[in-house]
Design brief:
With 259 residues, the protein is α+β, with helices and mostly antiparallel strands. It has 8 helices and 6 strands, in the order H-E-H-H-E-H-E-H-H-E-H-H-E-E. A 4-stranded mixed beta sheet has the order 3-5-6-4, sandwiched between helices. Strands 1-2 form a two-stranded antiparallel sheet. Strand 5 and strand 6 form a beta hairpin. The protein is rod-shaped.
Length: 259
């Protein structure tokens, strides 16, 4: 049937001559996936109403199927006019579908903060009374004034010196050798400390750090421990008995490696 129509159209063109341009050949378009009449109009530069008029069998202009045939009239072919022209239903123009917004390019990631560098392990804080701290300060003042290195407060040695001062009160004695712990050297070892040199000063009855330091500095044996270059660490203990009498202990040493 299609071939007959085309042949007839060609014959009309041959005989009618210049008037044949009003009846130019129609084309067909095969619907593809995603096609709409509006897109077909734009693709072929055709008026939407003219395309509807050229396809009267199209029941639902908004519903197209892939493979469906759509008649594409030539752009110069005008619609039929007069009383014999078929009436076509008025179809509202399809609104232009806006193109989806283009995705924004990804924003550059902010630079990652550098991982904090591990801090060197801090030496354990030495817990001691204010009187004990003042004694350490007075010892180092005497040493520095004579060009010697100050002594560092040692946590374990401080605990050991405090225990010795309290032991003298508990066992009611005043001596370097403890009935509980033995000699000062034995006692230091019992606190898990290894040393290469050690010494001890003890006192009781003095009421202030300055007074006890003056007592020790006036004694040649005690002064030699305070000013000895053999020692690098110090521990100080202060304890008070029930009568308010203070017992003082100084322990000195040079710790072995790892202590």
């Amino acid at each position: 049937m299609k071939r007959k129509v085309i042949s007839f159209s060609l014959i009309v063109l041959l005989f009618i001559g210049s008037t044949a341009s009003a009846f130019a050949l129609e084309k067909e378009y095969i619907v593809k996936s995603g096609d709409t009449l509006w897109r077909i109009c734009k693709k072929h530069n055709i008026n939407y109403r003219r395309l509807i008029s050229a396809n009267p069998k199209l029941r639902n202009p908004r519903l197209l199927f892939r493979g469906q045939r759509i008649v594409i009239p030539d752009e110069f072919m005008g619609p039929m006019e007069g009383k014999y022209a078929p009436k076509q239903p008025q179809v509202p123009e399809m609104p232009q579908v806006p193109e989806p917004p283009k995705p924004e390019p990804p924003k550059p990631e902010p630079p990652k903060p550098e991982a904090p560098k591990p801090e060197a392990p801090k030496a354990p804080e030495v817990s001691m009374s204010d009187f004990a701290k003042e004694v350490v300060e007075l010892v180092n003042k005497e040493r520095v004034s004579r060009g010697l290195q100050p002594l560092k407060a040692h946590a374990k040695l401080t605990d050991c010196a405090q225990a010795k001062a309290q032991d003298m009160i508990n066992k009611n004695y005043f001596a370097h050798n403890s009935p509980t712990y033995g000699t000062p050297f034995d006692m230091i070892e019992q606190w898990g400390i290894k040393y290469t040199a050690a010494g001890e000063n003890i006192a009781y009855g003095q009421k202030t750090p300055k007074e006890v330091m003056q007592t020790w500095m006036d004694s040649p044996g005690h002064r030699s421990n305070i000013l000895s270059e053999s020692f690098a660490e110090i521990g100080v203990g202060v304890a008070e008995n029930k009568n308010g009498v203070l017992y003082w202990t100084q322990m000195f040493m040079r710790a072995a490696k790892g202590n």
